[in-house]
Amino acid sequence: MTKNNAGNYFEDFRLGQIIAHATPRTVTAGDVSLYTALYGSRFAVQSSYQFARAIGFSNAPVDDLLVFHIVFGKTVPDISLNAVANLGYANCRFLLPVHPGETLSASSEIIGLNENSNRKTGIVYVRSTGFNAAGAAVLEYVRWVMVRKRDDAAPTPGQLVPALPKVVEAGDIGKACPPLNTAAYDFTHAGSPHRFTDYAPGERIDHVDGMTVEEAEHQIATRLYQNTAKVHFNQFTEGQGRFGRRLVYGGHVMSLARALSFNGLGNAFHIAGINGGRHVAPLFAGDTVFAWSEVIERLELPDRTDVGALRLRLVATKNQPCGNFPYKSGEDYHPAVVLDLDFWVLIPR
Amino acid sequence: MTKNNAGNYFEDFRLGQIIAHATPRTVTAGDVSLYTALYGSRFAVQSSYQFARAIGFSNAPVDDLLVFHIVFGKTVPDISLNAVANLGYANCRFLLPVHPGETLSASSEIIGLNENSNRKTGIVYVRSTGFNAAGAAVLEYVRWVMVRKRDDAAPTPGQLVPALPKVVEAGDIGKACPPLNTAAYDFTHAGSPHRFTDYAPGERIDHVDGMTVEEAEHQIATRLYQNTAKVHFNQFTEGQGRFGRRLVYGGHVMSLARALSFNGLGNAFHIAGINGGRHVAPLFAGDTVFAWSEVIERLELPDRTDVGALRLRLVATKNQPCGNFPYKSGEDYHPAVVLDLDFWVLIPR
Amino acid sequence: MTKNNAGNYFEDFRLGQIIAHATPRTVTAGDVSLYTALYGSRFAVQSSYQFARAIGFSNAPVDDLLVFHIVFGKTVPDISLNAVANLGYANCRFLLPVHPGETLSASSEIIGLNENSNRKTGIVYVRSTGFNAAGAAVLEYVRWVMVRKRDDAAPTPGQLVPALPKVVEAGDIGKACPPLNTAAYDFTHAGSPHRFTDYAPGERIDHVDGMTVEEAEHQIATRLYQNTAKVHFNQFTEGQGRFGRRLVYGGHVMSLARALSFNGLGNAFHIAGINGGRHVAPLFAGDTVFAWSEVIERLELPDRTDVGALRLRLVATKNQPCGNFPYKSGEDYHPAVVLDLDFWVLIPR
């Protein structure tokens, strides 16, 4: 019996199947430092223990996307080792804060399967959950991914396209954020005077700065998340492949764009949920990432007077500054767009 | 109102203005590991908790230049986002040790302004201070920087060239170093037998080794310091600019040269103050940094028998070994010189 | 007297000489994060405090090779600064677990000397020991290295080729692993169902994945270990040398291959000893490392029912997938092989 992991193919999945993933991972201050060094994130809540404690956190929480990437990474060997493409995300909710010292593990449930008409691939819908050491869920999200079949002739293992919410519900927003003493929130230290009510739907913000990605950087990041997807690391094989080069992990682009968005959204300190997201085009080392945001909605949260939620569209481009907010013409994305992310952030009222 | 930060232009500053900077930052063991990995520093006091505690520190202090870079990084969005050049440093004093777990914040006072005759730029003199969580100053320094005007026709916002000390005073040297039990100082573990009195003014030391800089390295370092200066990160824009490429953060060169200087100055464990410094020429990825030092002065410190101070000139070059101590011909620097740093170190007596 | 370290030459060593090395180093969670980020290692015992504690460790131990590299790095300035080649390892034994917070130091004893017939170089055999803060040995190994003479005419400083064990003895295996409660060992979280008895001598495992090395990555790693060997860092000098480029530290290849070996050896959580190893060919940035393993022997350990030992040959190649297990034709290595490592791992019974 071969002992290496060939990963699951489309016909290996079953509706309702639950997969507990390897490798549990203790998140430490070392991971936080690396995250800062890889993206340059400047949100005060995650950067300063003192700032976080002053407003009501037990300690500085780990960046939300670091939690996301670590949980995501665990799912790769079981879910997407034979994936052709990561198609989308839905109903991603951050449920508890994660602090340095917490140990994360993950499991996934197969909630949908849909074979493609060519019978060579199928779409797997999976709800993945990250847990802390006490077994409480810290993060839950759905993603769907196109996975190869091992054998084109294999019967389809199931057929169900799950109904997925377009938007994370208000009642699910903010669970990872304790009640805050916003009187202790220092807007000067946070780097921006702008609060919840200063942002209006339709408002667009150019995040101005650009960040060029190096091979070593995205590899170091993706390994930090123990993400084993082959396309990010193996130039020997990728050099002979579709693009001739290694592909940057899509989550790396998310984190770069999020870090750039500090410049204009400095108080939007917490990603409470991700409504949907699309990796519109691949990114490669040498590309420079720019980003802009649009405020889609401003939501007062039930029973919370400390923070409100902004629904944002965060668009990242490559090699294209965002002063003109490049996005779509009709259904077609501007050729420079690499990421289209729809998510909720919390911001002090 | 635009919410992104365009930075201050020369005419935006005022004499006596005090600017509290974003983002407070808790320094952790993760930052220390990254600092070691980026520069390969080998000073025992910073490397070993056990060594540091044995001689009287409460724990291993964070490398002095790591503290400097973090504080410096905080000042960038307010002071030098529109800078043409970072011109110099003066009277930099390390006032308290910083240990992992400490949270740093920073503020600056505008102490001088001097418009250039072309009226397109002016020089801003700023005294920046880094604070710990208790609000005590851990670092204070003056730098001056040439900043663009937004509008050439704007009236000059003030005119004062401050008097600055050429050298940090003896009474200000050593404040960040507790009284040491030098009997417990293990010279073998420290990697050098040479004490205070073994060094003599005029002595020159070639640090021998060379270190080649990669784009990923200086970007990771500069983001670790949350330094947002555009020239270090954005190849898209810099590719069209003056040099056609990203510029390495000057502080990265300082840290490389300091780490190289271990080879010959292994017991010079603490930078107590920086008298002045000049980034003589830009450094780019692919360049190899070499360094040499000259002992300028040997100073017994008032009331201290544990350590003495050496005033050093640390010269870094690119792509030029330093066996011949390249420096100046008359007023002109040797074309290979990139850094000329004048500073005080502490060393056991 | 020159104060920089020129390193020892062959004629400087003496049989029986003991050298205490600089720089003691506290290993932290920051180092562990960097190690994960540099290699992507996924062994649950090292990754999760919770997993490690559940089975009987006081905390997650630091990766064995991280300990090895840190100890090795300390020996470089005294032993191999003037080395031509690192020739081999023997009798490497891990004696105590190392946890974050532990401070490591190292010393070496010269146990053999053998001048080469050309009188330009000689082989130095050295037994190096790593110690924790309490002074207990955590690691001990022999290596031999070819070192230049300063002066060809200098008399040989001694002549002894030590007898070295081909294999670490059973009684020396497992000292760094406390008695484990294997009932609490979660094979799902560990990522593999395969136990001690599932592996059989002669079995070969392709580890499938490839990892491309970047200059920034191996430099960051090698500096993390405070390894100062010149060939890894200085493109200015190496560009004029034998290979025209920087050489990747051999230990970096060991760690890459070990991390890749998770795919097929997920429960082989601990390197208990290294019997021998050879860096067959140099690795350079841009090369992609692949690996495969062969089970050489399966050993029940005296007095242990929790874990058994597998003796493995781990072979790493460059730019050559290992599905066909490339190794040797007669005495000659396959041209793609870069590493041939013979070691003991522990695995639950």
Structural write-up:
The structure is a homotrimer. With about 350 residues, chain A is an alpha+beta fold. Chain A has 8 helices and 14 strands. In chain A, strands 1, 2, 3, 4, 5, 6, 7, 8, 9, 10, 11 and 14 form a 12-stranded antiparallel sheet that branches. The first copy, chain A, has a two-stranded antiparallel sheet with strand order 12-13. The radius of gyration of chain A is 20 Å and the shape is globular. Chain A starts with 17 loop residues before the first strand and ends with a strand. The model of chain A has no long low-confidence stretch (mean pLDDT about 95). Chains in contact: A-B, A-C, B-C.
Number of helices of chain A: 8
Task: List the quaternary state of the chains.
Answer: homotrimer
Largest sheet of chain A: 12 strands, antiparallel
The chain-level mean pLDDT of chain A equals 97
Fraction of helical residues of chain A: 10-25%
* Structural class by sheet pairing and helices of chain A: alpha+beta
How many β-strand runs of chain A? 14
Rg calculated over all Cα atoms of chain A: 20 Å
Low-confidence stretches of chain A: none
What general outline of chain A do the C-alpha atoms trace? Answer: globular
What proportion strand of chain A? Answer: 25-35%
Order of helices and strands of chain A: EEHHHHEEEEHEEHHHEEEEEE
Write the layout of secondary structure elements.
The structure is a homotrimer of 349-residue chains.
Chain A: E1 18-20, E2 25-26, H1 29-39, H2 44-47, H3 49-55, H4 64-79, E3 83-94, E4 103-115, E5 121-131, E6 137-148, H5 187-190, E7 204-206, E8 211-212, H6 215-224, H7 235-238, H8 250-260, E9 270-279, E10 288-299, E11 307-318, E12 328-329, E13 332-333, E14 337-348
Helix pairs in contact in A: 1-6
